[in-house]
Design a protein that fits this description.
4-stranded antiparallel sheet; alpha+beta; 4 strands; elongated; homoheptamer
Chain lengths: 87, 87, 87, 87, 87, 87, 87
């Protein structure tokens, strides 16, 4: 069973918190792992690095949609990885 | 069974000591691992980096509450990680 | 069964996205793994580093053809690796 | 069975030697591992970094007491780690 | 069964490509692994670092001969390794 | 069965050689491993870093005695490690 | 069965080549592994770093003798390691 990985550069408001964003992303179909690291905190926004690992069922569109629902802007997709090898 | 990890930047008074904070955090439901490293020592406060690993039962709210009870201020949550893969 | 690996330096238009390129490359005969990292984003183009791992059936020509079909220019092949050892 | 780890910054007289301090610390209830590295040697004192790993039975108080008995001053506790996972 | 490894500094014309050189080297008796990394690209030549791993049957002479047949100049042998331990 | 490790900073005459010192240290009761690295070579002396790993039977006194018998001066004990965990 | 390791700093003429030196050293009683890396190439000589791993039967004298027979000068023995632990 394959794996997909995404490194995302995201601009978010202070609320929802990193933890709330992680919990929301965790619920997406196919998600196995979510990591959110704070990069810079400005007056109104926080830029964060998000890594998401999932099964083949995971789609980038579902991630984007979830982020937009939380008023988070997907600034760039820094890394995309698709691994078809079973592990 | 999943794992949650938090990297916390915390400002604490000199008392309770790092060890006492670690012992208090260890008692929270779901906690498996606590590490506290001293970052800077000022006249009245110590800033520390705290890493906590726990099961799915661990909640950030219970960590915050425990820290506040010890007069420790959670300055920021630098990293949140949720891993649903069994290991 | 052997493995082939390629590190490619590629110049692509903003569309298709990194994810769409990864999905297209994944479909090539013999491909096991695709990773695309953004290097630099300019006004009209994005330069990316692509790593592809595949079986002995994977050919560089099929990669080149697929990239050209997406208006991506293969700037250079930075690393070629052929491993005949079973693993 | 859990593990506790401490990184200690200690100021000691030249005598007892690092080896004698290590042997004394090794005798504390619950101690599994002791490492002592010399940081700086001054005219009358040596500052050393001490790492101690132990079982749940290990207490910081017993370490402090042992160090004081050898005229060593516990300058700071740089890291405290409590790991409840069996290994 | 032993292993031989060579790190080679090679100056090659732009054609044959890195991939064609790798495919030619792969055919040498005893070769198990070939990696070619581009170091510098000049107007008429490319300098590359080549790593070759092989069995005891692999000889440096057969590598040199193959390189010369492709108009590649073996500039230097930066590392030679012979490992007689079975692995 | 426990392990002891020592990192020693030693000043030695050019003769005996590093290899002769290693062979002498290897004969001490409890020694399992000896490594000697040259740090600086002066006109009459060589300063070396010596790492010795041994069983619980190994004593620092027996190491000191052996070094003195070879006209080597134990300048400092940079690290002492006692590991009681079986491995 | 124990292991011996030597890191040698050697000055050699351009001929014999690194590969020929490696092949000669490989024939010494007890040798399991030889690695030769070029450090600097001068007009008449090449300075190389040689690592040799062998069984307890390996002696430094046999290495020195072999090097001298090839007009190579053993400049220094940078590291000597004797490991009596079976692995």
């Amino acid at each position: 069973m394959g794996r997909k990985e995404f490194d995302l550069d995201v601009l978010k408001p202070h609320i929802p918190s990193n933890y709330e964003v992680a919990q929301a992303l965790e619920e997406i179909l196919g998600v196995l792992f979510v990591s959110i690291k704070t990069d810079e905190i400005d007056q109104k926004t926080t830029s964060v690095f998000i890594t998401i690992i999932g099964t083949e069922e995971l789609s980038l569109d579902s991630i984007k949609e979830k982020l937009e629902n939380m008023n988070c802007a997907l600034h760039s997709v820094d890394r995309v990885q698709i691994d078809k090898r079973t592990s």
